[in-house]
């Protein structure tokens, strides 16, 4: 009878440990998805701000210029405006008869660990590109 009791306790303990690990994993995924939602909202906001700035100034702007123009809130003037994402905004000025352009990447960075999806948007397009494992580019799939 004693051995049966020990066996039951062992099985219940293993089941409990597995359920705790599943719960923790689910919480971590929820946090990653919440951070991605914030990143998506930010890249959409940056894209809209760039279009607005371009319409009024004929050029694209840095994050600080967008903040100064009142098109982005002041958190975008900080070095890391998003908690777990790094923003990379590249501007190409007008050259001769050519047009100015921009590209913007948002890449996850959780204390040096790259957990989450990567996002990309560029001037002249209406979509946000996404890549699950590396910096996104114009060749990656569009978010639907």
List the helices and strands and how they pair.
Blueprint lengths: L1 H56 L5 H6 L16 E8 L8 E8 L9 E5 L6 E3 L13
Antiparallel strand pairs: 1-2, 2-3, 3-4
- The mean pLDDT is 81
Rounded to the nearest angstrom, the distance between the terminal CA atoms is: 59 Å
What does the main sheet amount to? Answer: 4 strands, antiparallel
Strand tally is: 4
Regions with pLDDT < 50 over 5+ consecutive residues?
none
Estimated radius of gyration: 22 Å
> How big a fraction of the residues is strand?
15-25%
Sheet with most strands: strand arrangement: 1-2-3-4
Count of DSSP-assigned helices: 2
Give the SSE string.
Answer: HHEEEE
**Helix fraction bin:** 40-55%
Principal-axis shape: elongated
**What's the multimeric state?**
single chain
Class inferred from helices and paired strands? alpha+beta
Give an overview of the whole structure.
This protein has helices at 2-57, 63-68, and strands at residues 85-92, 101-108, 118-122, 129-131. The protein is elongated. The chain is an alpha+beta fold. The chain has a four-stranded antiparallel β-sheet, with helices on one face. It has a domain at 35-131. 22% of the residues are buried.
């Amino acid at each position: 009878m004693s051995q049966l009791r020990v066996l039951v306790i062992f099985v219940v303990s293993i089941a409990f440990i597995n359920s705790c690990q599943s719960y923790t994993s689910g919480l971590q995924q929820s946090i990653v998805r919440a951070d991605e939602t914030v990143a998506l909202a930010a890249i959409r906001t940056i894209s809209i701000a760039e279009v607005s700035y371009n319409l009024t100034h004929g050029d694209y702007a840095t994050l600080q210029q967008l903040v100064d123009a009142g098109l982005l809130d002041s958190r975008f003037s900080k070095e890391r405006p998003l908690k777990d994402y790094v923003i990379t905004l590249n501007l190409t000025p007008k050259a001769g008869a050519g047009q100015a352009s921009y590209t913007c990447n948002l890449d996850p960075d959780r204390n040096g660990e790259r957990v989450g999806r990567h996002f990309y948007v560029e001037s002249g397009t209406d979509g946000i590109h996404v890549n699950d494992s590396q910096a996104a580019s114009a060749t990656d799939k569009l978010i639907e």
